[in-house]
Amino acid sequence: MPNNKNNNNKRWAILSGIAIQMGVIIYLFTKVGVWLDLNYSLSGKKYTILLTLAGVAISLFLVLRQTNQLNK
Questions:
Q1: Cα 66 to the center of its chain, rounded Å
Q2: Are 36 and 47 in contact (CB under 8 A)?
């Protein structure tokens, strides 16, 4: 029984790390997009939108890959 509890704690720690990683990736991509819009865009928020979507896609890919490895 103690081994099962350690395994559950390890799994929760990994999942928490994945959530933090996802948030950091999306945040950084959004900040770069905002910076690009402020410095290089004449109108609109095209860089912000594109880079935010790219950050979400990359983070989802990493989440799927990590959860697949977790379930093995």
A1: 12
A2: yes
pLDDT, tens digit (0-9, with 9 covering 90-100), for 1-51: 566 777 788 888 888 889 999 999 999 999 999 999 999 988 889 999 999
Is the separation of the CB atoms in 52 and 26 below 8 Å?
yes
Position of tokens 């996802």?
22
Tokens of 19: 């959530």
pLDDT of 71 strictly over 80: no
Q: What angle do CA 27, 28, 30 make, to 5 degrees?
A: 65
**Alpha helices, H only, the chain:** 2-40, 46-70
| pTM to 2 decimal places | 0.82
| Tokens coding 25 | 């990736």
Query: What gap in Å lies between CA 9 and CA 12, rounded to an integer?
Result: 5
